[in-house]
Amino acid sequence: MGAGKFDTPMTLSAPSVSLAPTGDDETVYLPQAVVWAQVRPRRVAATPQAGRLQETTGYTVRLRYRADVLPGWLLEAGPLRLRVETVVDPDQRTRVLDLTCRQLEEAS
Predict the structure, then answer these.
(1) Into how many domains does the chain fold?
(2) Is 63 part of a structural domain of the chain?
(3) Is residue 108 a part of any domain in this protein?
C-alpha cells in the first residue's frame, strides 16, 4: 500500500444528536480527523424528484484503517460532501477501509 494512492485530504465527521431550541432533535457533525483518502466515482443514479430527474453520484472512498468509522459519518473535501453508507475492511487485516458513500447536495 503506497502513500501515493491516498491523494485527497478529507475531513471525517461523526454525527451527534442534540436538542434544538424548538425541542426537536438536531443532528450536527463533529469533525474527528483529517484523513488522506483515495476517492473513486462508483455510479450515477437518476431518480425522479419534484417532477424532474435528480442525479446522485456514488463513490468508493479508501482510507487507512480506523476502528471508529461508522455508516452515517460524513467525509468532506472542498465542495464534495459524502455520507458514508457502508464500511468494509476488505482483507480483514486492519490496513485500509473501503467506504461506500453517497454524495450530498451542497449546503446553501
Answers:
(1) 1
(2) yes
(3) no
CATH of the domain at 40: 2.40.10.270
Q: What is the pLDDT of residues 61-96, one digit of tens each?
A: 999 999 999 999 999 999 999 999 999 999 999 999
Looking at the domain assignment, is residue 37 inside a domain?
A: yes
Cα end-to-end distance, the chain, whole Å: 38
The pTM (predicted TM-score) of the whole model is: 0.80
| Helix (H) or strand (E) segment spanning residue 7 | none
Sequence letter at residue 42: R
Q: What is the mean pLDDT of residues 7-32?
A: 94
Q: What is the pLDDT of residue 85?
A: 97
Find, among 11, 2, 3, 9, the residue nearest to 84 by Cα: 11
Read off the amino acid at residue 27.
T
